[in-house]
Amino acid sequence: MSEFGWASTTDEVLAGKDLSGKTVFVTGGNSGLGLETARAMAAKGARVVLAGRDRARLDEAAANITADHPDAHVETIVCDLSSLDSVRACGTEANKRFDKIDMLINNAGVMACPLSHTADGFELQFGTNHIGHFLLTKQLMPLIEAGEDKRIVNLSSRGHHIAPANLDDPNFENAPYDPWLSYGQSKTANVLFSVGLEQRFGSKGIHAYAVHPGGIDTNLGRHLSEEQAAALVERVTTSDPSFQWKSIPQGAATSVWAATAEQLEGKGGVYCEDCHVAPVDDQSTKGGVRSYALDQARADRLWAISEAMAGESFAA
Ligand SMILES: NC(=O)c1ccc[n+]([C@@H]2O[C@H](COP(=O)([O-])OP(=O)(O)OC[C@H]3O[C@@H](n4cnc5c(N)ncnc54)[C@H](OP(=O)(O)O)[C@@H]3O)[C@@H](O)[C@H]2O)c1
User: Fold this and answer.
1) Residues 110 and 190 sit within 8 Å (Cβ to Cβ)
2) With bands split at pLDDT 50, 70 and 90, how would you rate the model's confidence at 315?
3) Which of 86, 187, 271, 306 does the annotation list as catalytic?
4) The domain spanning residue 183 has which CATH number?
C-alpha cells in the first residue's frame, strides 16, 4: 500500500527525496499540472526541462520556478506536439543539449476541443495527446536509455472510461466527431502506450506508468463554454457524488509519485490514481482502470498504427 492518497501533495510525496543529478523532462511544463510537477522536482534538486509550444510562456514558467527556488536548475525547449516536424526538431535539439533523461513526464494535453487537426492532418486530441507524445518518446529514447532509474509517466485521465481507443478510425474520418469521445479515446491511448512501452522497454530497465491526476481546475477546460463546463461538473458529480476538486499540488502528486516511488520500481505498465496503482474495474464510475486500456493486443495494435502515423519505428 502507498502511504500517500487522494489529498497528498507534490511536496509531501517528495519529502525526504533527493533528486540531485536527475534530469526530468516535462511536456506542457509551462502550465497547470506540468508546471507544478516541474517546480516540485526542481525544488528537490532535479534539473528540469520544460517543454512547450510557446517560447514566451516557457520563459515565464521557468522564471516562476526560479523565483520560488533560486537554486533551481530549469531549462526550456520548444516542442509543439501537434506538429511532427516540431517534435522531431525538439528531439534533435534535446539530443544535442542533454546527456540523459531519467524521467520523462508526458503531461501536455488538450481536452474536448472543436474538430480540428494537427499540422499532419490528424484529429487534434489523438494527434497531440497520443501521437505527438509517441514520436517525442521515440526521439528521446537514446537519452532515456542513458538515464538512471528510468521512468516514463504518461498523463491519462479517468476520461478513459468514456471509450476504448477506436483503432479503426482514430481521426474520426468515418464516425461523427464528438469532442468527449475523442478525449476519452486519446486518454485510453495514453494508458495503452504505457503498456506498450513497458512490454518493449521494461527489460531494459525503462518503466512506464499511466496517471489519472484527479479533477483539477486548470487551463485544460479552455475549450468549454460555460454551459459545457457546467454539464461536465454535473456529469462528474452524478457519476461520483463524493467528487471533489483537487488543488494543483494535489493533482500533480500522482505524477511525481509515479516518477519516484520506490514501490513502483520495475512494476510499470500500470495506471495510477490518488498515489496508488488503481485496480482493474469495468463498472465503477468512481475510479479504477478499464480492462480495455491494459489489453496487450490493443496496445500492440495502437503501437503499429502510431508508428505508421508518426512515420518512424522505435528500435527496441
Ligand atoms: N486538470 C484535470 O482535471 C485533469 C484531469 C485528468 C487528466 N488531466 C491531464 O493532465 C494533463 C495536464 O493538464 P492540465 O490540467 O495541467 O492542463 P493545462 O493547464 O491546460 O496544461 C496543458 C499543457 O499542455 C500544453 N499543450 C497543449 N497542446 C500542446 C501542443 N500542441 N504542444 C505542446 N504542448 C501543448 C499546454 O500548453 P499551452 O499553455 O501552450 O496551451 C499546457 O502547457 C493533460 O494531459 C490532461 O489530459 C487533467
Assistant:
1) no
2) confident
3) 187
4) 3.40.50.720
Instruction: Please give the Cα distance from 46 to 32 (Å, whole number).
Output: 19
Q: How far is the C-alpha of 313 from the C-alpha of 173, rounded, in Å? A: 24
The vertex-177 CA angle with 172 and 178, nearest 5°, equals: 130
State the residue range of the domain holding 299.
10-307
3 in any annotated domain: no
Cβ proximity of 119 and 70 under 8 Å: no
Distance separating alpha carbons of residues 146 and 36, to the nearest angstrom: 25
Which residue in 315, 316, 306 sits closest to 87, CA to CA?
306
Contact 87, 63 (CB under 8 A): no
Is residue 112 situated within a structural domain?
yes
Alpha-carbon distance 125 to 61, whole Å?
24
Q: Which atom of ligand 1 is nearest to the CA of 82?
A: 31
**Count of domains observed in the chain:** 1
- For residue 275, being part of any structural domain is answered with yes
Output the ligand 1 site: residues, CB below 6 A. Answer: 28, 30-34, 52-54, 57, 79-82, 107-111, 128, 155, 157, 212-213, 215-216, 218-220
pTM across the whole model: 0.98
Residue 4 in any domain: the answer is no
Active-site hit among 8, 182, 183, 186: 183
Residue 172 Cα distances to 83, 116, 121, 213, 302, angstroms: 18, 11, 11, 27, 15
Give the tens place of pLDDT for each residue, 200-255. 999 999 999 999 999 999 999 999 999 999 999 999 999 899 999 999 999 999 99
Residue 80 CA: which ligand 1 atom is closest?
32
CB 10, CB 33: distance < 8 Å: no
User: Exposed/middle/buried for 143, CB within 10 Å: 0-12, 13-18, 19+?
Assistant: buried
Q: What is the mean pLDDT of residues 24-38?
A: 98
Residue 279 · residue 36 · CB < 8 Å:
no
